[in-house]
Automatic annotation (TrEMBL):
Residues 1-24, 177-201 are annotated as: Disordered. It comes from the Bacteria. Residues 14-24 have a biased composition (Low complexity). This is Scaffolding protein. Residues 1-11 have a biased composition (Polar residues).
């Protein structure tokens, strides 16, 4: 074996080792991102819980103040003050009802978003398409508005996202898109469904990481 052949073998071995390190590094960073996302979700839930508690305590205090003011006005025969207290009570109920309606809309939207999250290889990526979700007042339901077209069916939304070139490197493979059933990074071109053409796994992983740099 010539000296050049030996050098080539050493170079190939170094490349393989470098590739292994790169894969391990990407996997570790993905794991860190998932953990960070989990922590953020827990923190968000905690903040929401505290805010709801504070809002509830504030509403109770305001309600108690109105009742006391109304009782005092009744004792004094101050009907103008009683009327004002009733108007404030009505406004408070309107605010409560508006908040309830908004919460129902938000819940419906989150439910639709959750129904399509399985299309991704990583739950974090659901957040990439969240801005395209909104609540349609005309239709009275949540919709996914993408490239100027509105969709309200979860399966259709999954299909639209799967066929979008910008998501092709980290959309889960499905039969509809001509991919593999493993559920990993799709190695089959989604745009034309022709099998046999391989994608570089690292390309897909790097595309994910680049979104969070």
């Amino acid at each position: 074996m010539s000296e050049q052949d030996i050098q080539n073998q050493e170079t190939d071995a170094q490349d393989v080792q470098s590739q292994d390190v790169s894969n391990d590094d990407l996997a570790q960073r993905l794991k860190q991102l998932e953990e960070q996302n989990k922590q953020l979700q827990e923190k968000y839930s905690s903040v929401v819980s505290v805010n709801e508690q504070l809002l509830s305590e504030k509403q109770k205090a305001e309600e108690q103040a109105r009742l006391e003011a109304e009782e005092k006005a009744r004792k004094n025969g101050d009907w103008e003050a009683i009327l004002k207290a009733k108007e404030q009570e009505l406004e408070a109920y309107k605010e409560k009802d508006a908040l309830r309606v908004q919460q129902e809309k938000n819940f419906a939207k989150e439910k639709l978003i959750g129904s399509i999250s399985s299309v991704f290889t990583n739950p974090v990526l659901t957040r990439l398409v969240e801005p395209d979700f909104t609540y349609s007042e005309d239709l009275g339901k949540p919709i996914f508005k993408h490239n100027g077209v509105a969709y309200d069916n979860a399966e259709k939304i999954k299909e639209v996202i799967s066929l979008d070139p910008q998501f092709k490197d980290f959309v889960k493979a499905t039969g509809a898109t001509g991919g593999h059933a493993s559920g990993g990074i799709n190695r089959t071109p989604i745009d034309n469904g022709v099998s046999g053409k391989k994608y570089d796994d690292n390309k897909g992983k790097q595309a994910i990481l680049n979104k969070f740099q």
